[in-house]
Design a protein that fits this description.
3 helices; 16 strands; mainly beta; 14-stranded antiparallel barrel
């Protein structure tokens, strides 16, 4: 959501071999995973507070300051499969989201439709609210607040038995006690950040060899926010590669995106349109210490957003490591 989607991608973004993780098991029972680890992030943003964050900025016409912090990587997923009907109930993160370190929580149902693919429907909500500033533009001490979101996601994976995957996500976004721009402009209503977001995603899994998968993806997002100067359209093109072996696996992706805002920012009298790009990679070592369901991982990411307004520029890099236990 907003500029924080870029931070999430760079902080935790990797791609999985999608085709291998969406298939519903044929046997009934519980399954899932738990994940734990830690990461170090370095970020530059006037809108994302992070775990530290400076309550001052360098001026309305300057780029953001650099901040660093240690972040925990903790997550879990619980699923129950009805083997006879190929129906699966889930709570938490699906494994294909977790290996991309997308911490959007879900509760819902997935259904295998023969060779037609897997349909899914779920309720999505913020597992960990994002920290931001009530008024990011305030020239004196800034006060922190939370961004929360909830909504619904519909998906169709392996469409008609092919490598095509599609999803639609609707989110309602709430910035608590939003005072964006109130200290510097009488038109602060144009900078309100609460509202709704629509996200459409299409991807296609291409099997190069049994262990190698290439996945091109297009993602379109439309944010209809209370402030017209914060509402935007965003189009992202992404190319992902995955190698899955018995002892180790590697996932990586590279993306480029363009963000276009609806109207001029009243502080700067121009739109904050931005070009965005990033890349990331994660290495997994399976059967760690001889324990079959235990894997270790190391991840590194970098992303940048170049806005027409320097105050809106964002840059983030991260490294992380941890363990995943599947059951």
């Amino acid at each position: 959501m907003l500029r924080y989607s870029l931070l999430a991608v760079a902080l935790f973004g990797t791609a999985a071999a999608h085709a291998d993780v969406v298939t519903i098991p044929s046997e009934s029972g519980f399954s899932g995973f738990v994940m734990g680890g830690a990461g170090v992030q370095n970020y530059q943003s006037n809108f994302y507070k992070g775990r530290g964050g400076d309550d001052h900025h360098d001026g309305l016409h300057s780029g953001p300051q650099s901040q660093s912090s240690l972040v925990p990587l903790i997550n879990a997923d619980l699923r129950y499969t009805f083997g006879d009907t190929r129906t699966q109930l889930f709570l938490g993160n699906l494994i294909q989201d977790a290996v991309r370190f997308d911490f959007t929580q879900q509760a819902g149902v997935r259904q295998q439709i023969g060779d037609k693919g897997v349909l899914s429907a779920g309720y999505v909500f913020s597992g960990m609210p994002v920290k931001t500033w009530k008024d990011p533009f305030a020239e004196k001490s800034r006060s922190e607040t939370d961004i929360k979101s909830n909504g619904a996601r519909l998906g169709w994976d392996q469409v008609w038995g092919s490598g095509l995957n599609a999803s639609y996500t609707y989110r309602k976004i709430d910035v608590k006690d939003d005072e964006s721009g109130a200290s510097v402009t009488a038109q602060s209503d144009m900078l309100k950040r609460s509202g709704t977001q629509h996200r459409y995603e299409l991807s296609y899994d291409i099997r190069l060899q049994p262990k190698h998968t290439l996945t091109p993806t297009i993602i379109y997002s439309k944010a209809d926010l209370d402030g017209s100067a914060e509402s935007y359209d965003r189009t992202q093109l992404q190319l992902s590669y995955a190698y899955q072996g018995a002892q180790w696996s590697l996932t990586s992706n590279v993306f480029a995106a363009q963000r276009n805002y609806d109207t001029d920012n009243p502080i700067y009298n121009q739109q904050a349109d931005a070009d965005e790009y990033g890349l990331n990679a994660t290495f997994f070592w399976h059967q760690l210490m001889g324990i079959k369901p235990l894997s270790g991982f190391v991840s590194a990411s970098y992303a940048k957003s170049n806005s027409d307004i320097a105050f809106y520029d964002t840059q983030v890099s991260s490294v992380g490591t941890g363990l995943i236990y599947n059951f």
